């Protein structure tokens, strides 16, 4: 029951990212002070949330700079970390990455099909052979923008559930 605000955040963020390919600030930003306030009043204290916030920012911001994650994904990770702390955030991020690869492939397959996969593979072989970069085509898998918020949300939900019921944990 104590993770109900986090669950609401995860559901809203995943739904918005799937629908619009954006996670708006009005969804993620209010949950950052809410997580800090929640842990200050009922949980492990403000340091727990603030350390999660700082750690998630330091870990995810370089991925934003490299354009691996979008800004909404970084803010979602920061909001998740204020509720879970830095240790459980690492676990949720690992689960999110494991869930994300098949999810991204499925979403890409739905958009471009087998031909888009073959086109990307052929382009990569040409890049490898010629050692020159070639921009992806529009109907190619590599040229797609696929939402990653649902994978981060599922990873966080899985980490929280496994940790809460002490089924399995990667970090102690």
UniProtKB/TrEMBL annotation:
Report domain Prepilin type IV endopeptidase peptidase positions.
Answer: 6-104
> Which Gene Ontology CC terms are recorded?
plasma membrane
Show the GO MF annotations. Answer: aspartic-type endopeptidase activity
- List membrane-spanning regions: 26-43, 50-69, 89-109
Superkingdom of source: Bacteria
* Gene Ontology terms: biological process: signal peptide processing
* Pfam families in UniProt: Peptidase_A24 (PF01478)
Q: Which Gene3D superfamilies match?
A: 1.20.120.1220
Keyword terms, alphabetized: Membrane, Transmembrane, Transmembrane helix
Transmembrane among the record's keywords?
yes
Say which family it is in: Belongs to the peptidase A24 family.
What is this protein identified as? Prepilin peptidase
Q: Which organism is it from?
A: Oceanimonas doudoroffii
